Amino acid sequence: xxxxxLVVLLLALMCGCDKTKPEYLVSAMGFDSDGGDYSVCFESxxxxxxxxxxxxxxxxxxxxxxxxxxxxxxHQCTQPVLLSHCGVIAVGEGINKxxxxxxxxxxxxxxxxxxxxxxxxxxxxxxxxxxxxISSTCAGYDIMGLIKQNKGYKNRFFEIINSNFKAELxxxxxxxxxxxxx
Length: 182
What we know:
The chain is of the alpha/beta class and 182 residues long. The chain contains 6 helices and 8 strands, in the order αβββαββαβαααββ. It has helices at 2-14, 66-76, 97-109, 125-129, 139-149, 157-162, and strands at 23-33, 38-48, 53-63, 81-82, 88-92, 118-122, 172-175, 178-181. Strands 1, 2, 3, 4, 5 and 6 form a 6-stranded mixed sheet that branches.
């Protein structure tokens, strides 16, 4: 836990931003849909390097388009949101193939998002990202650890693009004991 905190703090110090203001480091993103609107959530570690405080926030937005939902999240933040730390992109069961492709295109257009981020599917992305982390600073990094232990999936962002959006995503569920593969 201390190692993860030190890594996050070190990354925050190296980003070249104004160190006296809080920074929103996105560790995971979630996308859901009810057939109409998109619901987007960002699990963010908010770091204030002036007083060495950090807290975990789940930022949420809703809109007819992904951009509208994400803009709603951005308007909640006092500082820029840094997507370069995003390691997991969770897709809810309400996301169909066309919407999945839209999500991939949105993420690809956001040059900050690394192509090595893991995509996962889940019943509800917001619920998955809102659980209390067990072994790291945030749920997104716990999910990354679980995926890395269970190799065999081709669910990194670049693999999904190369498969023409036909990759098989691992199903991850939230239980009383934490997160599990199904």
